[in-house]
Amino acid sequence: MTFAEQYLNEVIEIAGKLPAADIEAMAVGLAKARDNGGRLFVLGVGGGAAHASHAVNDFRKICHFEAYTPVDNVSELTARTNDEGWETTFEAWLRTSRISDHDAVLVFSVGGGSREFGVSMNLVRAVELAKEVGAPVYGIVGSPDGTTAKLADVCIVVPAPSERRTPHAEAFQAVVWHLLVSHPALVAQDAKWESLTTA
Predict the structure, then answer these.
(1) CB 123 within 8 A of CB 45
(2) How far apart are CA 21 and CA 154, in angstroms?
(3) What are the chain's domains?
(4) Which residues of the chain have pLDDT under 70?
(5) Which end of the chain is more exposed for a tag (fewer CB within 10 A), N or C?
(6) pLDDT number for residue 62
(7) Which of 2-19 are b and which e, b meaning 16 or more Cβ less than 10 Å from the residue's Cβ?
(8) Axis crossing angle, helix 165-182 with helix 47-61, rounded to the nearest 10
């Protein structure tokens, strides 16, 4: 078997193992936050940061959900990092955004952050703050052992082989949030190309 065949077989296997009921619960929870006038704060670093920026666009445009991510403002992000440290960047941004129990947080991360190992502490502190104020937390991660998986209201753990955890976790983050913005509970308008489709 070639590497390409092996990788694609893993994709098929992972897709078949994703917990559809949990994804449905995530869609319903996000729709509830939106319909009650809440906002969506999307957090991620590295590949997760790129997903956060793209997802914010789709949640806003397709789902009419007021959504934001701190990684879209590089000036604020780097000022906070420079002046106060990386660990507090997302937490401080959420505090300034006056996060409340009406809002929701969505995390894209491979490990989900870990206070025990001091990894992705900006995500850890943000998730802990969200829980403190009563905002529901949702996550799409690659590890069941991180802070996000342990504290989230609903967390999708991508069941990837350990030797390729990062590429599969990041790939399926995009699969799941594209599912969410296409979900009947959330979608408020057709995407452009779908709107051009003739019956």
Answers:
(1) yes
(2) 10
(3) 15-185 (3.40.50.10490)
(4) 198-199
(5) C
(6) 97
(7) eeeeeeeebbeebeeebe
(8) 10
